[in-house]
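User: For a benchmark we're assembling, each entry needs the component sequences followed by a predicted structure for the full assembly. Here are entry 17's components. Please fill in the structure.
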Amino acid sequence: MAKSTFKGGVHPPYCKYTTGKGIEKLPVPATLYVPLSQHTGKPAKPLVKRGDEVKKGQKIADADGYISACIHAPTSGKVRTIIDHPHPVLLMSDFAIVIEPDGKDEWFEEPLERVNWQESSPEEIVNAVKEAGVVGLGGAAFPTHVKISPPKDKSIDTVIINGAECEPFLTADDRILQERAKDVLWGAFLIKRAVGASRVFIAVEDNKPLAIGKVSDVIKEFPSFELKVVKTKYPEGAEKQLIKALTDREVPRGGLPMDVNCLVQNVQTAVAIYEAVRFGKPLIERVLTLSGDGARGAGNYLVRIGTRFLDVVEMTGDMSDDVIKVINGGPMMGISQYTLEVPVIKGTSGILLFTQKTARRFEEYTCIRCSKCVDVCPMGLLPLMLVDYIKAGRFTEAKEKYGLSDCMECGCCAFVCPSKINHVQWVKFGKQELRRSS
Amino acid sequence: MNEKNLVLSVSPHIRSEESVKKVMWFTVLSLAFPAASAVYFFGLYPLLVMLVSAFTAVVAECILLKLRGRDVSQCLDGSAVVTGILLALTLPPRFPLWEAALGAAFAIVFAKQFFGGIGQNIFNPALVGRAFLMAAFPVDATTWSPTRFMSPDTFTGATPLANFKFEKVLTPYKDLFFGNVAGSMGETSALLIILGGLVLILKGYVDFRLPLSYIASVFCFGGIMWLINPSKYPDPLFHILAGGLMLGAFYMITDMVTSPITRKGRVIYGILGGFLVVLIRLFAGYPEGVMFSILIVNSIRPWIDRLTKPRVLGEV
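Assistant: Structure for entry 17:
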């Protein structure tokens, strides 16, 4: 049977070296830097001040407004200060609560199983998720409680649990599925309950046989759940592409998955939802993949939020001296870092350490109109035309005629380009200029 | 590790192994197939024409890049070599060297660099060079010679297309397919051109839609005319095997720079081109229409691009 997929896309070298490495728990580092902005939307408002004692799981910052999320202390200790600290996504420093652990790792409220958690009402689920500060853990970090409480006029019939993990190198979701398949499914069960959907798809790319095996073992216990093996192709895990592949529905331009009655959640988010509802456990740690040719301790690690990249590297066995690129996330859409001082945040799905060999630098050559970018664009755009218009400063036309705003910056075009044109960089620039002019 | 050495760049952080140089030099390599047929059927002189043409193209490119204040090393990216060799392959086997050089220089200077260099030209440079040579040296550009396997005494000096157009004499398919016929040095062997073209298609440098739609279109339109009047018009198989159609289909209409950017556009482009080939071959003064057909579709390419803009995902 032909596996479902979408139109376009590329096949980068997948480099899933760490798929066989079990999730290892990293110790709490000497200092934690917990940024107030770890999600899409407004940064959280701090609830603690310098000198305060905090316990593990205690809420230290509260959601500010509807699209925001609260933040909890990753361990017990003392708030040293709240300062500007390098941030892995914002590309500039931002406020972070600095915590000095006391080494006791004492819970504020020990996570205990709640009675009848399986029968929680949608409101209870949404509330538990909100109180636990759960955000999308696939990378975009959109506050989950917002996502699972769609407006009244939108009905969701399909919940898709996204275990595609199409970014090369990353294997965190793969490991979660291998080790905690049942928790993922319970999470999916709760999401389904919260939004009143009728079916659940668990989507996994066909290059993860172990994960597929584990899921198919436990999925029988969940009626109306279906394992969907999708073709291994980047960006299979992109929301709109995954929905198209599994349901043949197209999210309208500028629209959201709920416009086509779908809801997509990452596998790790599903686990976080499960833990939040069943145990009331807040999101204070996540699994990430450390990899790349410069990493000596490549593997999958359960890391406390706020642990600096530097600490992750040191605790896992250091790195080679010739690392020239540090990436938060995957190689296709991740963000390169100027310092290892940046902390792991909720959306950090991976830390990649690249040497010269992998992170090569190229000069842009003239476009030879080979149209490879057109063939691979999963959104059906004309990347070469977009770049032409942006270079010419015609941003409005780039938007109106060539769909500048539809570009999700997946990087397929730049990946295949023989002229090594930095399409994504031009697109980001074009979007920024558009925002500035409006 | 020193943090000062960390490189910051926008994603993606990994790139494919492709480069313009690879595309161009691989194309040059694939031209060994038609070039081999030129040498096999017409001797070593064609090789000399190719070398002179390619060399002149590179020199002309180098000078123009210098004059335009661009990076001179671009002249070795392989694209000028492709133009030079392709031009030579479209010339008669005994074409004078200095005229070939002039044609190559004209192609690079007027059809490529004056438009802004690689990627910017509207017309296929090699074909512009050939059109120029046909206008400048009409006799030399149409003086054909027999292959090494034909008897010079019975050679009429006409190509299969001319033979049919003016004498209503058909050439055996076998000769057309293997290349034992009079014609431009690189266009006679359908077999070797297809082999070279297949290599490019498999490598992903040529979209099969272009040669396929172009050849199929000639076959269909030629076939329709043949069905209407078989005694006056040649059969479709003759159409696709004779003349420069194969070379045009695999190496000329497929030029990345001058062909449409969408898959649908490429199909339309090929069909239009094929229609023009048949139109020119059967109703114009020239026996061959490949060159003009491609130059004409080159000019409407931007319009095809605009008409075939793909549907954005989620667009209604």
